Amino acid sequence: MVRTFLPLLLLIVYGGGFADAADRPNVLFIAIDDLNHWVGHLGRNSQTRTPHIDRLAAAGVAFTRANCAAPACNPSRAALMSGLRPSTTGVYDNGQDWKPVINKSQTLTTQFLDAGYDVLGAGKIYHGSVHRPGEWTEYFEGQGPKLKLHPSAPDDGVGGIKFGPLANPDEEMPDYHVVDYGIQQFQRKHEKPFFLAIGLVKPHMPFSVPKAYFDMFPLESIELPPHTQNDLVDIPAAGVKMARPNGDHAMMLESGRWKEAVQAYLATIAFCDAQVGRLLEGLERSPHKDNTIVVLWSDHGWHLGEKEHWRKFALWEEATRTVFIWKVPGVTTAGGICGRPVDFMTIYPTLCDLAGLPIPEHVEGHSLRPLLQDPQAAWNRPALTTYHRNNHSFRTEQFRYIRYADASEELYDHDADPYEWHNLADDPAYAALKRDLQKFIPEKNVPELPRKADGKAKGSKARKAAS
Ligand SMILES: [Ca+2]
């Protein structure tokens, strides 16, 4: 008896409960680009319209304090896909090549390939849509777009902040084709379980989508995000340097077109949401709907003038907090809301855990399984975001603590100050809190890798419109 049962028992123990590769769940991994917390269910912006993302949130567990590992595309995605923080690899910003410092054996997709999955990718998963051979079964690179501004657009934006409605219909948008690819995979017969990574490039700039989405947000109805005068006066020089108030923000104020940029971002989010909706409907209509884990994340947040800052590239709430949703058959319960502070280093180990794959030794994050099962479960660590060497931001349920490389600091009490207007770092009452959070500073903070020219700078105007 013992001889008969032992191998089966071992398989169950080491296979996470799945006796056979074919029994493992599929994974739908939805990567969004530059979507901040302006989704309906997070309540940060009452004007945003994201019914499909909100429907997914209501069907599973929505995290309300999810933070990226790094507030820029390249380091955020390299960390998430490798399990290695920027402080471990030296990939801190765009333009730093992750490929020489992250081995094939370390990536998330390699774990699923090795476990017998079909690993299918489309669109932007890594920055620049880079995908190395041998780490994917198949990759759909998308189609070169021919996008044209709508005749009603006066121009393509303000300085480096690019926006304006397009003359093209949805069907000509690159994300539309990437979603089509995903829908085709749901309809295909699969011999193996699949890991399907769908990477959407909107709402990344330019905030340019078909005009119908702009029409959803009439300019006269647009409200600016909450902001305060002289918000940078209590911020150390290292923070002001990240805000660059004399750059995009000065130009935006000068132009008088701040509301137009907000309108364009909302429109681009609404387009993104529509594509997520098509993808989710494709899954729901397929035979895989009850055996597919869905995880949706965006690589980081975005400022639209808060703290006199535009874009990501900073360590405040707007740049670091974003959408994060899990729907896991048999694990999550509809309507789950989790307020624990988590960062995206959790995604890799959670997916391995849920699929019954071993979590490789090098992976720095922790599985979210306890929170997926019970969103109120204990979670005793802050979310950590790093931007450039030795600059770290720690988010707890109540506070955000930022410590820059020169040891200057910011501290915000989100219960009293959800927009981070009052820096409390010099108040001695918080000395113990700061010390506690400093314990989470990574032990290793390796030097920055050399920067190469950003790959996105290449290519035609049309290609830029899609990136
Ligand atoms: Ca991005």
Beta strand %: 15-25%
Distance between the termini: 60 Å
The outline comes out as globular
The percent of residues in helical segments reads: 25-40%
Describe the structure.
The structure is a single chain. By secondary structure, this protein is an alpha/beta fold. It has a single domain, classed as Alkaline Phosphatase, subunit A (3-Layer(aba) Sandwich), CATH 3.40.720.10. It has 15 helices and 19 strands. The strands form 5 sheets. An 8-stranded mixed sheet has the order 5-4-8-1-9-13-2-14, sandwiched between helices. Strands 16-17-18-19 form a 4-stranded antiparallel sheet, covered by helices on one side. A 3-stranded mixed sheet has the order 12-3-15. β16 and β17 form a beta hairpin. It starts with a helix and ends with a helix. Calcium ion binds next to loops.
Short description:
The chain is α/β, with parallel strands linked by helices. The chain contains 15 helices and 19 strands.
Distinctive features:
467 residues; alpha/beta; 8-stranded mixed β-sheet; 19 strands; globular; binds calcium ion
How is the topology of this model organized?
Blueprint: H1 2-14, E1 26-32, H2 51-59, E2 61-63, E3 66-67, H3 73-82, H4 86-89, H5 108-114, E4 118-123, E5 138-140, E6 157-158, E7 161-162, H6 174-187, E8 194-199, H7 211-215, H8 237-243, H9 245-255, H10 258-284, E9 292-298, E10 303-304, E11 310-311, H11 317-320, E12 321-322, E13 324-327, E14 336-338, E15 342-343, H12 347-355, H13 369-373, E16 383-386, E17 392-395, E18 399-403, E19 409-413, H14 431-438, H15 461-466
Parallel strand pairs: 1-8, 1-9, 2-14, 3-15, 4-5, 4-8
Antiparallel strand pairs: 2-13, 3-12, 6-7, 9-13, 10-11, 16-17, 17-18, 18-19
Helix pairs in contact: 2-10, 6-10
Bound molecules: calcium ion (CA).
The site of calcium ion has 6 residues, from loops.
